[in-house]
Amino acid sequence: MVLNFANLITPEEQRVLLDLLARAVAGQSGAMGETSRIVTAALARRTDFVDAIQPRALAGVRLSRLLPGMPAGLLADEPLMGERSLLRSDVAFTLFLNEPEAYEGGALQLDEDAGERSWKVPARSLLVCPGGITQRLSPVVQGERLVVVGWLQSLVRDSQIRALLHDLAQARTLVHAAEGNSRAFELLNKSYANLLRRHVET
Amino acid sequence: MILCFPEIITESEHRQLLAWIAETQFDDGSRTAGKALVGIKNNREITADNPAMQRITELVHRALARHQALQSAALPRTMAAVMINRYGPGMFYRAHVDAPIMGYPNQLRSDLSFTLFLAEPSEYDGGELVFEHVGGEQAFKLPARSVICYPTGHLHRVDTVTRGERLAVVGWLQSLVRDPLLRELLYDVATARRLVRERLGSGPALDFLDRAQSGLLRRYAET
Fold it and tell me: Which of B188, B194, B220 to mutate to test the interface with A (most CBs of A within 10 A)?
C-alpha cells in the first residue's frame, strides 16, 4: 500500500534540505547527518505516519538530484542497510523537494496491488511504500528532480500486519470519539495491543 | 480464554437427551483413558462407538452450530465425536490434559474442549470442573444446559462426587485458528465489530473493523 503525506516538512525545512542538497552536489561533506536529523524530526511529529508505519529507526537517507541524461530505471532497495549496525529497509520513502512543474519526466512508478501507478506529487510531500516493491523512475527530460529518498525499519516487519494494526487503531480512534471509553473501545484497545505485542520486533 | 454460555440447548432438547441417555448402557470410563492415565480416571461413559450416540451427537452439534457467540469464539473447523460421562458418588477424574490428536482414520487436532452440563448443581455435591493454571485454580459448576468451552491444553480435573450424580456431554473440536491467543483476539475484534454495528451503525469505524476482521482471519485461519 502506497501512502502519500502532504506537507510533511515546513517551507523552512524544505529550504534547508535544498541547501544541503546543493552542498552535497558540490562535493561538500557533512550534509547527510543534518538531512537525517531533519527527516527524523519531521516523521516523528506526523502522528498519522507513525500510526501507519510504526517506525523504529531510520536505516538510511540519500539526497538525490536527477537531471536530463542521467540513468533512471529500476530502483532496487538493499534489504539490509547501515555500517555499524544493520537495519532492515521495511519501508521506503521519497520526500519531494521541488514542485512537479519544475521537471518533465521523473515520475516514480510503483508496482501496487492494482498494477503499476505513476506518482508525481507536490514539493514537501512524502510518498511511502513497503520496501521491496518494484520502483521504477522514468528519466527526466527537462529541468531537475530533487528529492530525499530514505528507508526505515519498522517495529512491525510485515506490511500486511502493519495495515491490520492501522485499521484497528483507526477504528479505535473513531469509536472513542463517538462513545468514549465503551466496551467496544476497550476490546479494540486490547486487540491492538496484543496484536502489536505479537508482531513487534524491537 | 474459558467461556461459559447458558441455555445452549432448549428444555425439550434437554429432556430428549436425558431420555436417550436413560435407555443406554454406560461403560467403564477408564477404558478410554490411555495407559498413562489408568487410576486417575474413575467414571462411566457412553462413547462414540455406541449406536445411541449418533442422534445425541447430532443434537449437540446442531445446538452448538446455532449459537453465534460460541461459533465466533471457537471458530470451529471440524467437530470431533462427543461422549456422555457420569460421575456417581466416589467417582472423579484427576488432573489431566486431553489428547492433542483424536480420531482414526480421520484425525483432528483438539484445539477446544467443551462440557455441556446435563445435571443441575443442586443434584450433586462435589464434581467441580477445576482448571489448574500456573497461577492458581479455577473451579466451575454450571447450571444444566450450560456449556463451558476451554483450550484443550489446560490441565484440568473433575473433583470427586460425594452425593448424587453429575451427568454431562463432553466433546472436542478443531478450530480454524490453532493459537488460543489469536482466537481470543479474533473474538474480541468480532465482538467490538458487533457492538459498533449495533451502536454506531455503518460508517468508517465499521469499515475498518470489517477489513481488520477478515484480514486477521485470512492470516491466521488453517483450513
Answer: B188
Which of A164, A182, A183, A189 to substitute to test the interface with B, most B CBs within 10 Å?
A: A164
For residue A55 the three cell numbers come to 517506525
- Cβ atoms of B215 and A163 within 8 Å: the answer is yes
Q: For A82-138, what is each residue's pLDDT tens digit?
A: 877 899 999 999 999 999 999 999 999 998 877 888 999 999 999 999 998 888 999
- Locate the chain B residue with the closest alpha carbon to A162: B212
Query: Quick one: angle between helices B180-199 and A159-179, nearest 10?
Result: 40
Contact of B1 with chain A, judged by CB distance below 8 Å, is answered with no
CB contacts, 8 Å: A160 with chain B: 215, 219
What's the ipTM?
A: 0.80
CA B97/CA B102 separation, integer angstroms = 13
Query: Model's pTM, two decimal places?
Result: 0.84
Among the partner-chain residues A164, A188, A194, the one whose CB lies closest to the CB of B192 is A188
- In sequence order, what DSSP letters do the residues of A138-176 get, joined into one string? PPEEEE-EEEEEEEEEESS--HHHHHHHHHHHHHHHHHH
CA-to-CA dists, residue A7 to A112, A143, B70, B189, B221, angstroms: 23, 22, 48, 34, 40
Query: Which residue do the cell numbers 467496544 mark?
Result: A184
